[in-house]
Design goal:
This protein is α/β, with parallel strands linked by helices and about 270 residues long. The chain contains six helices and twelve strands. The protein is about 25% helix and about 20% strand. The strands form two sheets. The chain has a nine-stranded mixed β-sheet. Helix 1 runs parallel beside helix 2. The structure holds zinc ion (ZN) (2 copies).
């Protein structure tokens, strides 16, 4: 039992890589028995399709249209639709929940914040910062960069990730007591990159994005909605060395030191 939520979803209304409109996800998730979804399109420095040359007010308004039309469709058939967004720092991504359009309008400086400033501002105003797919390895990267100090939680299951990357994130989060979340990172209403659908299962229904923030910060009353045995997949060492951002940018572990004796991931270049 429980209430199912999608926490990581991209629409073609607002994300360049989105393949389905927000309204198409509504019947899709409703039919799958989900209670709600979060629309988390790529933000200003990410893969947005809203022109960046627009004045900030206009940019934010157009960015939020994806959520608005999706929510209207959700209201019509009884699927909850909540707002969030995904920020990008050249390969490091963060999901932000619990703040709204008004907050964005009042914080045009968000475009220039680094990861630490983002965390401090969002946190101070009651929002939640989740590092998305922290151990993802892609050809545009040269290292894995983790931010345990600039996030409230980590997304340890992501349907755009290879299983070993989620196993790494899950293992590290477990070792270090980092709160965990799961999401599909879905780009089309027909399914996710790896064929799974992830998300969160809560004991009590959520009635707002703020409810979700409070729940994750409390650390109880929910579980990850992931494929059976997903985190029991065969461990593999990352291809890149792992850097942790604290006050410094510190190399915490060489790639091969993660799971001694385990195979190493293939070169993503
Ligand atoms: Zn995308
Ligand atoms: Zn995403």
């Amino acid at each position: 039992m429980g209430f199912k939520y999608e926490t990581h979803l991209h629409t073609s209304n607002s994300s360049k890589c989105g393949r389905s409109e927000g309204t198409e996800y509504v019947p899709y998730y409703k039919a799958l028995g989900y209670d709600g979804i979060f629309v988390t399109d790529h933000f200003y420095l990410g893969n947005t399709c809203i022109p960046r040359e627009l004045p900030w007010e206009e940019w934010v308004h157009r960015y939020c249209d994806a959520y608005r039309v999706t929510k209207a469709a959700g209201d019509a058939i009884g699927l909850k639709v909540f707002f969030g967004w995904e920020t990008s720092y050249a390969g490091e991504d963060f999901l932000i929940y619990g703040l709204d359009e008004e907050w964005l309008l009042a914080h045009p400086d968000i475009r220039y914040w680094d990861q630490k400033e983002q965390y401090e501002h969002v946190h101070a105003d009651g929002g939640l910062v989740v590092q998305a797919h922290p151990f993802r390895e892609r050809n545009y990267q040269t290292e894995v960069k983790i931010h345990p100090y600039h996030s409230d939680a980590w997304e340890v299951a992501n349907c755009g990730n290879k299983p070993y990357q989620d196993v790494l994130a899950y293992t590290y989060a477990k070792e270090h007591g980092i709160t965990m979340t799961a999401g599909s990172d879905i780009h089309r209403a027909a399914g996710s990159d790896n064929g799974c659908l992830f998300g969160m299962i809560t004991d009590a229904p959520l009635n707002s994005a703020k409810d979700y923030v409070d729940l994750v910060k409390s650390g109880t009353g929910y579980r990850l909605n992931v494929a059976e045995g997903w985190h029991a997949n065969r461990p593999q060492n990352p291809w890149f060395d792992v850097f942790c951002y604290n006050e410094d940018h510190e190399r915490i572990r060489l790639a091969g030191e993660f799971f001694p004796g385990a195979p190493t991931a293939v070169d993503p270049h």
